[in-house]
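Retro notes (design track)

What went well: tokenization of the new backbones is finally stable.
What didn't: we kept losing track of which sequence belonged to which structure.
Fix going forward: every design gets posted as structure first, then sequence, in one message. First example under the new rule, 238 residues:
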């Protein structure tokens, strides 16, 4: 989901931040995704609430003519990343482990890299973060090029990365930061027991906030429809 928000921010900025419907469509699109998923609005809302708890997503409440809540990522702010680094993470989240050459080609609409070496340099920066965000994978038999993997989100087992088939060993999964992201609709890394109660309360508050904003939007739409109907009746002489 973070990958979808970054992708749409950088490729269709005129539509960003995204509405719930637009984000649901982005998460379920059939191109540039591995694996391809089908998510409903409820699953997307759960993911958004969880990402907000992690301070990786912000809710933009209706204002300035906007009638619905919209959503934006703050991945760059959370980790101090530039556009090129965020673009690389987005493609790794959306399509799993890839070579630097593949990443250069697939980030073309989001960031400009002058060479594969430039991509490699940014990957090294991501891997060198205090909490590493990417890592170089060991080559498998038959593979001729290095492949890179994002470390933001792992499968619920804590051993494999969403969108790819690579595995992390048990020691690495224990050392990785405990996050609970929803990527491609799959829950990842359950937080410690001591934080679950507070997270659940915050999650509930976030859901109430979303529902309240949707109610306000619906009420505004009813008012607009009522005014339009009254105007139509007046024009018809009723």
């Amino acid at each position: 989901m973070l990958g979808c928000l970054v992708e749409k921010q950088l490729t269709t900025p005129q539509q960003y931040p995204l509405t719930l419907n637009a984000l649901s469509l982005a998460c379920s699109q059939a191109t540039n995704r591995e694996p391809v998923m089908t998510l409903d609005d409820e699953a997307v809302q759960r993911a958004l609430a969880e990402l907000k708890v992690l301070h990786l997503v912000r809710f933009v409440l209706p204002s300035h003519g906007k009638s619905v809540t919209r959503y934006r990522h703050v991945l760059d702010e959370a980790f101090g990343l530039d556009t090129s680094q965020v673009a690389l993470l987005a493609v790794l989240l959306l399509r799993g482990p890839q070579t630097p050459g593949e990443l250069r080609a697939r980030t073309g609409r989001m960031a400009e890299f002058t060479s594969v070496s430039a991509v490699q340099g940014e990957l090294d920066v991501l891997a060198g973060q205090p909490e590493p965000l990417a890592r170089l994978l060991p080559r498998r038999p038959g593979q001729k090029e290095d492949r890179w993997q994002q470390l933001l989100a792992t499968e619920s087992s804590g051993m494999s990365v969403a969108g790819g088939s690579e595995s992390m060993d048990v020691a690495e999964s224990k050392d990785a930061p405990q996050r609970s992201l929803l990527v491609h609709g799959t829950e990842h890394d359950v937080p410690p027991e001591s934080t679950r109660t507070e997270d659940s309360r915050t999650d509930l508050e976030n859901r109430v906030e979303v529902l309240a904003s949707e109610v306000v939007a619906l009420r505004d739409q009813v008012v607009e429809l009522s005014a339009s109907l009254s105007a139509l009746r007046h024009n018809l002489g009723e």
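Added context from the reviewer: Confidence is low (pLDDT under 50) at residues 155-191.
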